[in-house]
Amino acid sequence: MRKAGFLSKVTGSAMVFFLLAANLAAAAPSEAKEGKEHSFLVGLTPGVAAKALDAPGIQMKDRWDDLNVVQIVASEAAIKGLEHNPNISYIEEDRTVYASSLGTNYTDGALTWGLQAVNAEQAWSQNATGQNIKVCVLDSGIDYDHPEFTRDGVSVIKASKNFVNDGHPDATDGAGHGTHVAGTIVGQTSNSGSRIGVAPDVDLYVARVLGDDGSGSTSGIINALSWCQQNNANIASLSLGSSRSSRTEKAAFDKAYQNGMLSIAASGNDGGAIGYPANYSSVVAVGAVDSSLNLASFSNYGKNQEVVAPGVATLSSIPRGTGIQSSAKETENGVDTSFSSVPLEFSGQGEVTGALVDSGLGDSADAFSGKPASGPWVALINRGSISFAEKIQNAVAQGASAVIIANNDTANPDDPGSFTLGSEGNWVPVVSVSYNSGNSIRSNGLGTGSVNVSSWDYSYFQGTSMATPHVSAVAALAWSANPQLTNEQIRNILQSTAVDLGTAGRDSSFGFGLVQADAAVQKARNF
Questions:
Q1: How far apart are alpha carbons 524 and 490 in whole angstroms?
Q2: Which of 131, 148, 166, 459 has its CA 20 to 30 A from that of 50?
Q3: What's the rounded Cα separation, in Å, for the pair 63 and 43?
């Protein structure tokens, strides 16, 4: 088994952004309720017109003649009346699909660890940057004016459309998920402190299929997939899915594959079976690995797992001003020591400098007995015993202006953690540092502490959602090296050039392995 050459440990300042998104493979209850209208997809027998479904209680909403399918809105009673209609081959719910990411932390550097892991820079050096390749991202939309999506003064977004019936006039991202995914594919700058885009010269097409709550519908996916094909997209990238398959959706992805488009989708985030559309044979299923090239604890897996890519501590763009970043520093005898930190979710913003006070577990007034008589001060509190919110409330009651939480995870002593205060409130700036950093602060003598929490246009997410755009972008790099190749040939190149991980050969955890941009580009060029 080979290992890719890149940084094995992620370090640096960090932040957390809360995303309203469900785990892809969470069990979904039946959405059709007695007496309540709901959307259904109905397959028609060949040659039958949609008007054959005309009946009281049924509204026609959409149709896909190439699939012999119509979308209707009907009550449960009306659907029961259709069950024995000879003109119908099947009826299925227009099921809900979800974004596949989780908020998380970490890192800075010239390139993100994800770009290093897939050898993106080595592919660029071969003059493969995604030029003339169209990537269609089906997600929650995009922040049109984010600097990551402007190339030489011109937007990389060639077209966009909203497929969610929520009143949005365009594909503006109200969740953050789509902007993050798109940044991993085509990010242009290093404004975050790291270069984030794997294939910076692709043309981006944005289909908004997830609402501001991170969910969407099967019918929206099908319509967006058709729109991507109408725009001659080479690649469809889907960081979303459902635990349930859909006959109609499968037919749509099969048709797209037959028409030459390569669809790449997230396997899911609950550590269980691969979700859909990733689990269809016409779609590339993507699992997530961490910076040590272990399968991420949340990543779904199964016999159809095809490849894996970076999906933990993934830095990328989010709608401007919606993220936060932090820094933590101790000054002792004129010497500054900085520590990697993560702002707690819902932390207040601002910069505080003052005496550092060892406050134990922060579980009583006595824990803060070392506080100064006057002036701002920063409480250093160990994780454990009571909730973070209670610790901060206790510290503020004693006069603390900011708080540093020292993680107690000795199994991962360099991990600052990823924590929450539970809800919005009038909080002071609060950050967490690792177990080792907490010990180091104390051993330095507890001098002056500085904590800074500020807004940011970037965030670190984790999920198979984050792995998927890495694969989509690597596919674009390979395709740009040889545009004459077919989608099937590009798919085979991704498989054959991946770094084998885990059990030798293809396995259910890593599939063929970790995608490698430089090897894929070279093989495409020599194909």
A1: 7
A2: 166
A3: 10
- The residues, ordered by sequence, that sit 6+ positions from 364 with a Cβ below 8 Å of its Cβ are 394
Residue 271 vs residues 264, 299, 400, 411: alpha-carbon distances, Å:
19, 5, 41, 21
State which residues form the domain around 72: 38-94
Which pLDDT score is estimated for 102?
46
Closest CA to 419 of 440, 434, 441: 434
Residues 332 and 448 in one domain: yes
**Whether residue 307 is found in the same domain as residue 208:** yes
pLDDT-derived band at 8, boundaries 50, 70, 90: very low
Residues 168 and 145 grouped into a single domain: yes
Interval 422-472: pLDDT, tens: 999 999 999 999 999 999 999 888 899 999 999 999 988 889 999 999 999
Q: Which residues of 220-252 are buried (b: 16+ CB within 10 A; e: fewer)?
A: bbbbbbbbbbeeebbbbbbbbbbbbebebbbbb
Do 371 and 477 belong together in one domain?
no
Is pLDDT above 50 for 134? yes
Element holding 182 (H helix, E strand): helix 177-186
Residue 426 DSSP SS3:
coil
Asked if residue 362 and residue 283 are part of one domain, the reply reads no
Element (H, E) at 469: helix 464-481
Q: With bands split at pLDDT 50, 70 and 90, how would you rate the model's confidence at 119?
A: very high
Over residues 333-371, the pLDDT tens digits come to 889 999 989 899 899 999 999 999 999 999 999 999 999
Tokens 């402007």 belong to residue: 150
Report yes or no: 307 and 295 within 8 Å, Cβ to Cβ. Answer: no
Q: How confident is the model at residue 26 (pLDDT cuts 50, 70, 90)?
A: very low
Alpha-carbon span 355 to 162, nearest angstrom:
52
Is residue 255 in a domain? yes
**172 is written with which tokens?**
């503006």
Residue 484 burial class via C-beta count within 10 angstroms: exposed 0-12, middle 13-18, buried 19 and up: exposed
What is the DSSP pairing of strand 240-241 with strand 96-99? antiparallel
Cβ(462)–Cβ(311) below 8 Å: yes
Terminal Cα-to-Cα distance of the chain (whole angstroms): 25
The C-alpha atoms of residue 228 and residue 253 are separated, in whole angstroms, by: 12
| Bridge-based pairing state of the strands 262-266 and 283-289 | parallel
Query: Using an 8 Å Cβ cutoff, are 413 and 11 in contact?
Result: no
Q: What are phi and psi of 3, to 5 degrees?
A: -115, 140
Peptide bond preceding 277 in cis form (omega within 30 of 0): yes
